[in-house]
Amino acid sequence: MEVLVITIPDALQLRWLMENLPENSSSSETKVDKTVKTKPGLRLELRGERNYYKGILHIGSTLIPISDDILEELRAKTALSPDEFFRLLVEKVGYSSYLQEQIQQEVKNGGNLASQMSAIQQTLRQG
Asked: Is residue 1, in this structure, part of any structural domain at all?
């Protein structure tokens, strides 16, 4: 299993986001807010079939690509309790002790473990 960790410095991430925001071309008076506000906690992004990695776990400014195999394993376990699902997520996505610590710290920063895991589980069910 090959896992790639990509860390994008905030300036590059902001530049990429600004370049890729949809512009509202129907009205020149409409302002597009291009500020980036990083929310604490974990977030799972499902990207679809056109992308090599169909799942990305956001841990602050760190993006962790998730293989199809791991996404399917997690998808099959969405009925677990939030605590059990979190342990599975850390085991499957956190391939190093450093990454496991980062995931655990980000969950603490984001607050309620149950709500974060429920949101990730819901994303997997819908994806």
From this structure: no
Asked if the structure places residue 83 within a domain, the reply is yes
89 in a structural domain: yes
Domain tally, the chain: 1
Please say whether the dihedral angle defined by the alpha carbons of residues 106, 111, 114 and 120, taken in this order, is positive or negative. negative
pTM over 0.85? The answer is: no
Residues 6+ positions from 119 with CB-CB distance below 8 Å: 43, 44
Residues sharing a CB contact under 8 Å with residue 74, sequence separation 6 or more, in sequence order: 66, 85, 88, 89, 92, 124
Domain annotation covers residue 74: yes
pLDDT tens digits, one per residue of 45-98 = 998 788 788 899 999 878 999 999 999 999 999 999 999 999 999 999 998 999
Q: Write out the residue range of the structural domain in which residue 54 sits.
A: 6-126
